């Protein structure tokens, strides 16, 4: 059983701990991405899980086996956890095969485990090469093969793609995901790249202030963020101040109907509750004819290849981002009108009752 469980984890370096009661559970065989801003404690978490840094309070367990707890510390080499560091960290004087086989017994090497994992990561036949003869992406594949070779229950990856260019990163993400699935290992991927976390993982844990602010599927953290900070961190957003009343909220993008329980028809509608209304840029629709929605001026168009961002200024001076696919709907300087499609979210201000409401255009 390799379900990874972290309960009430407190760990750090100085008097103020970096991790402050962190809870996290990753089911067996799942790939979880740990997403958070620089310095929030992602690497510290991996180091504690790998047994390289002590915890002060809490518990780390793999299945029923406690690995770390006050008074318990299973040494790193006996945890059944493989680590892929940020930049491969291969032994430069050892061949690929020797790097991969480093942690294996002679029997395991004789059984062909090295060739097996090299094939798993797409490097069959590369055993005799030296690390210096490999590209950055290939070196990361070897690092993954080395981590997988002893059949660990858990693989930890610390920003394994950060030194690679965008095209290589995308290719490697797909291959690493497939290799991890095939190995059956539970995996934790540390990243500060939202696209990587959302695109690769089965589960995303958003770290903030030393705890997990939200743990959910990529869809959940993007479409149903636990709070405004998570919403703003995981993807782009268009936000306005709002004060729902009578089951609707007025925004510079028009009147949005507030449909969720807690605001509409609950008796609270008359009580003014200021907060933030949030829509994603892909929900903003542009109408070239200027008939549907609110008047806006296109201030810039950023073409990304697979899609484009259209920057707009509304009549009242608000700036709005819109994401569009396919043919560009407008050019810089065009007068258009904009509206919102689908549902939006309302987050009451911090000093207000904390009930998220879903708003949709009326
Ligand atoms: N060895 C250390 N001694 C003292 N403080 C440290 C040490 N290592 C990390 N820290 C501090 O602990 C905090 C968390 O660091 P950590 O490396 O875990 O963050 P991170 O989320 O992985 O950041 P990044 O995304 O930049 O890699 C930071 O404020 C960092 O300065």
From TrEMBL:
Signal peptide: none annotated. It is an enzyme of class 7 (translocase). Coiled coil: none annotated. Its EC number is 7.6.2.9. Gene3D superfamilies: P-loop containing nucleotide triphosphate hydrolases. Keywords: ATP-binding, Cell membrane, Ion transport, Iron, Iron transport, Membrane, Nucleotide-binding, Transport. It comes from the Bacteria. Pfam families: ABC_tran, TOBE_2. This is ABC-type quaternary amine transporter. SUPFAM superfamilies: MOP-like, P-loop containing nucleoside triphosphate hydrolases. One of its GO terms (molecular function) is ATP hydrolysis activity. One of its GO terms (cellular component) is ATP-binding cassette (ABC) transporter complex. PROSITE patterns: ABC_TRANSPORTER_1 (PS00211), ABC_TRANSPORTER_2 (PS50893). Residues 4-234 form the ABC transporter domain. It comes from Saccharomonospora amisosensis. CDD domains: ABC_Carb_Solutes_like.
């Amino acid at each position: 059983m390799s379900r990874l469980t972290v309960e009430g984890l407190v760990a750090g370096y100085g008097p103020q701990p970096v991790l402050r009661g962190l809870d996290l559970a990753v089911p067996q065989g799942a790939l979880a991405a740990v997403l958070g801003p620089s310095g929030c404690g992602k690497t510290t978490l991996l180091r504690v899980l790998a047994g390289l840094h002590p915890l002060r309070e809490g518990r780390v367990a793999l299945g029923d086996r406690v690995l770390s707890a006050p008074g318990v510390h299973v040494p790193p080499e006996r945890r059944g956890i493989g680590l892929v560091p940020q930049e491969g960290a291969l032994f430069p004087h050892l061949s690929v095969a020797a790097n991969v086989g480093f942690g294996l017994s002679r029997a395991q090497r004789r059984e062909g485990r090295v060739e097996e994992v090299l094939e798993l990561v797409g490097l069959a036949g590369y055993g005799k090469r030296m690390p210096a003869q490999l590209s950055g992406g290939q070196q990361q594949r070897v690092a993954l093969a080395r981590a997988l070779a002893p059949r660990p229950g858990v693989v930890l990856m610390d920003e394994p793609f950060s030194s690679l260019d965008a095209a290589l990163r995308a290719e490697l993400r797909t291959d690493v995901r497939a290799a991890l699935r095939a190995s059956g290992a539970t995996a934790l991927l540390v990243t500060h790249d939202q696209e990587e976390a959302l695109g690769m993982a089965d589960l995303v844990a958003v770290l903030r202030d030393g705890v997990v602010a939200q743990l959910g599927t990529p869809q959940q953290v993007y479409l149903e963020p636990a709070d405004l900070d998570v919403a703003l961190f995981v993807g782009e957003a268009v936000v306005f101040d709002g004060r729902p009343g009578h089951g609707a909220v007025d925004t510079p993008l028009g009147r949005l109907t507030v449909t969720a329980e807690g605001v509409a028809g609950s008796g609270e509608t008359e009580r003014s509750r200021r907060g933030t209304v949030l829509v994603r840029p892909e929900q903003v629709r542009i109408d070239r004819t200027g008939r549907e929605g609110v008047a806006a001026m296109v201030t810039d168009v950023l073409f990304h290849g697979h899609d484009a961002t259209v920057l707009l200024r509304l009549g009242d001076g608000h700036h709005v981002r819109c994401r569009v696919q396919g043919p560009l709907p407008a050019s810089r300087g065009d007068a258009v009108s904009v509206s919102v499609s689908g549902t939006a979210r309302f987050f009451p201000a911090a000093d207000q009752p904390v009930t998220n409401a879903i708003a949709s255009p009326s």
